[in-house]
Every structure is written in structure tokens, then in C-alpha cells.
Amino acid sequence: MAYRNVLLLCSDEHDPRHSGFMGSGVVHTPHLDRLAGSGAVFERAYTPSPICVPARASLATGRWVHDHRCWDNAIAYSGAQPSWGHRLQAAGVGVESVGKLHYRSADDDTGFDRQREAVHIADGKGQVWGCVRDPLP
After folding, report:
1. CB 82, CB 76: distance < 8 Å
2. How would you label 48-84 residue by residue, b for 16+ Cβ within 10 Å and e otherwise?
3. Coil, strand or helix: which one is 114?
4. What is the distance between the alpha carbons of residues 114 and 112, in angstroms, rounded to a whole number?
């Protein structure tokens, strides 16, 4: 079976109204416009967590937060539960990532053959203080 290339773009805090293909007359995004014109565009999305590290773990595994147990920004995905990357690798498809994943470590088997410019949590320890309101209720 011949495999096609799949490109999954996830931008951090990107307002979709700031893309040409979504109707912005101010922001010019010719490369994104070209990709959107020949691919799938998700106009609505729902997150299983309002916190980025658990949400990224859910995106990787397809599981709810209570299943993968990455509750907050201090507990990141380690590859312990299979990801879509693991499934593609098992089918003989090469899988690469570029940029911010916020997984536990580049040394973990998270389903990528190669990680370019990987950004993960520092030393396997995440940032919990961002989840605490100040002042506390």
C-alpha cells in the first residue's frame, strides 16, 4: 500500500481569524492558504483539557485525560500509552515532529522517528504553578 504524506499543523494560541484562508484581509498567510486549499481544515475544535500539556497528551493518544493521567503541566506524556505515531510506525510509516510537543523528554519513545527542534518540559518536570490561581479562592 502506498502511503500519502500527512501534515498535521498545530499552532499555539493561533486565532483562526488571523489567516488568509479564514477571511482575514489584514494577515497574509499564502503558504497556509495553499495548504488549506488542498487539505482538510477544522473550523471547530474541542479540547479535553484547557491546559496545554494534558491536551497535547490527549491529541497524541486519542484518550481522555483521566485515561492517560497527564493531569496538568507538571505531568507530561511519556509514551507509556500508544500514540497515533506508534501506530503509524507499526504500519511502516515514518513519523517526524517539528517544534513544541511538551512531552516529558526527547529520550522517551513517543512515536516519532525523529524530533526536530523539539520543545519538551524541562528535565522531565513540568510547571505546576501555572495551574494555580493567584490569589487562591
Report:
1. no
2. bbebbbbbbbbbbbebebeebebbbbbbbbbbebbbe
3. strand
4. 5
C-beta contacts of 15-23 below 8 A and 24+ residues apart: 16/43
CA distance 64 to 47: 10
Backbone angles phi, psi at 34, to 5 degrees: -65, -45
How confident is the model at residue 46, as a pLDDT? 86
Label residue 46 left, alpha or beta by phi (over 0 means left) and psi (-120 to 50 means alpha): beta
More confident residue, 128 or 109: 109
Nearest to 73 by CA among 11, 129, 13: 129
Please give the single-letter amino acid code of residue 110.
T
Contact call for residues 112 and 83 (beta carbons, < 8 A): no
Distance in angstroms (rounded) separating the CA atoms of residues 63 and 41 = 22
pTM: 0.80
In whole angstroms, give the CA distance from residue 83 to residue 59: 8
Please check whether residue 86 is in contact with residue 65, taking contact to mean a CB–CB distance below 8 angstroms: no
Question: How far apart (Å, rounded) are the C-alpha atoms in residues 122 and 82?
Answer: 22
The confidence score (pLDDT) of residue 99 equals 86
